[in-house]
Amino acid sequence: MSEVLLFAPExxxxxxxxxxxxxxxxxxxxxxxxxxxVEASLLEARRLWPDExxxxxxxxxxxxxxxxxxxxxxxVWAALRSAAGQLGIDRNxxxxxxxxxxxxxxxxxxxxxxxxxxxxxxxxxRRARVAQARSVLEKLLQLDPADEIGGGAFLQIxxxxxxxxx
Length: 166
Prior knowledge:
Blueprint: H1 20-31, H2 35-48, H3 53-65, H4 69-87, H5 109-126, H6 130-143, H7 152-160
Helix pairs in contact: 1-2, 2-3, 3-4, 3-5, 4-5, 5-6, 6-7
């Protein structure tokens, strides 16, 4: 792996409230040329800021890009647990409804939860767990019916494996 890009330049951080020291650590990870240094920085960020969305997102994106899908999925679950704890909602996404939280918030734990559900679905697709991916992505679209997170395209991919394209 020659270069890992964690965030798009136009939106370098997930949350506007990301602490400055965390931003610094994530920027150092982004600039590191050695994957082991990137990973060490991202793990340190998550250890020091376990409740910050950017610490989780950076780590699971790194694992995904590194094709370490099992570790990426574990990092997504940590992000989901963190967001659920902050929201005071059930950790099990299957039990959530449109009324479980204010899913339209554009920042904060609601957005982290939805973004992480999408990541879980994509990772499961990469792991050839199509039925599980489909289940996650269907729940995402129940919680995000306007598809602001962008799970709809991945749900269509999952459905295409069983011939159920919309």
